[in-house]
Design a protein that fits this description.
The protein is of the alpha/beta class. It has a single domain, classed as P-loop containing nucleotide triphosphate hydrolases (Rossmann fold, 3-Layer(aba) Sandwich). It has nine helices and ten strands. The strands form two sheets. A six-stranded mixed β-sheet has the order 6-7-8-3-9-10, with helices on both faces. The protein has a four-stranded antiparallel β-sheet with strand order 2-1-4-5, with helices on one face. A hairpin with a 2-residue loop joins strand 9 and strand 10. Helix 3 packs parallel to helix 6.
Length: 240
């Protein structure tokens, strides 16, 4: 993992003036965002405020109407999704999207195509012992929480610089949510991975994020570092 990551403090992911529209309807209104190497940033907001649109535009599923995205100094704004993955981005979509008919091992293998490795690195199974036990089980037979861990493991197999997670706690039992929070902090600490997570569950956000951005109607309306965050303020933004 050594030389791949920037010194902490330098920006690993920057997005400038992001505008994204569905047809005539603009959803993101000129967002600016920068995430340092080894930083975990949470984008928090209610449903329909632009979290998933932001994630999909960062990974290239949705085209930008305007703006630029850089990963580790490389402009990826016009690259197709698979090229962004090759440039160091990994994405775990909302709803997990694992391959149900493939085994756990085969699912993780699909993440290796970027790296050229043929063996799943042992560190992946060290992070997710439950997947080690179930490596020959079909993905579709796992619980929701196990599928989420599998989706994250598959993303990590690509050895990314930036990991994007869209609503990872959705529909998952509290014990697994705690486990996912622990793993995210661990990979950040051990590998200097940069992580952006979109989320509605405030307890999860407060347990993983170094910095929190609140998105409302396609604009960032509040930002603070974890130590200084006003929980009541964020809770108000999340209240329906």
């Amino acid at each position: 993992m050594g030389g791949q990551h920037l010194d902490e403090g330098q920006d690993m992911l920057t997005a400038n003036r992001l505008r994204v529209a569905y047809g005539q309807s603009e959803v993101l209104h000129g967002l600016d965002m920068s995430v340092a190497g080894g930083e975990i940033v949470a984008v928090v907001g209610r449903n329909g405020m632009g979290k998933t649109t932001l994630m999909k535009s960062l990974i290239g599923i949705l085209p930008l109407k305007e703006g630029t995205i850089e990963v580790d100094g490389t402009d990826v704004s016009v690259l197709k999704t698979y090229r962004r993955v090759a440039a160091g981005m990994a994405y775990v979509p909302q709803g997990r999207m694992i391959f149900g008919s493939m085994t756990v091992e085969e699912n993780i293998d699909t993440g290796l195509t970027v790296t050229g490795e043929s063996e799943i690195p042992e560190r992946i199974f060290e992070l997710f012992p439950v997947l080690q036990e179930m490596r020959h089980r079909r993905g579709g037979n796992l619980s929701g929480g196990q599928q989420q861990q599998l989706a994250i493991a598959r993303a990590l197999a690509a050895n990314p610089k930036v990991l994007l997670l869209d609503e990872p706690t959705e529909g998952i039992q509290p014990s697994v949510i705690k486990e996912i929070a622990r793993v995210l902090r661990q990979i950040r600490d051990e590998q200097g991975l940069t992580i952006v997570v979109s989320e509605q569950l405030l307890s999860f956000v407060l347990s993983v994020a170094d910095r929190i951005l609140v998105i409302e109607n396609g604009t960032f309306v509040y930002e603070d570092v974890r130590a200084q965050v006003n929980e009541a303020t964020i809770a108000r933004y999340l209240a329906v």
